[in-house]
Design brief:
- This protein is 27% helix and 27% strand.
- By secondary structure, it is of the alpha+beta class.
- The chain has one domain.
- Strand 4 and strand 5 form a beta hairpin.
- Bound molecules: zinc ion.
- Zinc ion binds next to loops.
Length: 139
């Protein structure tokens, strides 16, 4: 993606977390890594982008990636999951927003934020006018 910048890779932290999981004493907080939120698992099943990476924990499932977008300029769309194709379009429509990539194994529940980066054309815009959603109508 042409506007990708300020990328932070969490590979080292991920390795540390994985080593801790394999250690003799699994710390409570590490066990939490596998206690995936049901919403996260559902999102991964329906919106996750398949990868060719085998899950490092259970070695059964393939990992799927979720791209979460955040930013003032996104308005009500901040916090949503977007496909790579949607990100390609969005980088031309917004000045700046953050993408957080989370890998998820729907088999064992392993999940980890593997990287973050910024996208956008640098031209600041006002957030889009709020659109009515299904929640507004039926919520
Ligand atoms: Zn797994």
């Amino acid at each position: 993606m042409w506007s990708k910048r300020h990328e932070v890779d969490y590979a080292l932290q991920r390795q540390r977390r994985l080593r801790a999981l394999r250690g003799p004493q699994v710390m409570l907080e590490d066990a939490d890594a596998l206690d995936a939120d049901p919403v996260l698992l559902r999102s991964a099943t329906h919106h996750g982008e398949p990868t060719t990476v085998t899950c490092p924990v259970c070695t059964q499932g393939m990992l799927t990636n979720l791209n979460y977008v955040f930013g003032d300029q996104l308005g009500q769309f901040s916090g949503r999951i977007k496909s790579t194709a949607e990100l390609e379009e969005m980088q031309n429509e917004y000045g700046e927003f953050t993408v957080r990539v989370v890998e998820v194994c729907t088999n064992c529940g392993w999940n980890y934020m593997i990287s973050t980066y910024l996208l956008g054309d640098g031209t600041r815009r006002r957030p889009p006018r709020r659109q009515r959603t299904v929640e507004d109508i039926y919520g």
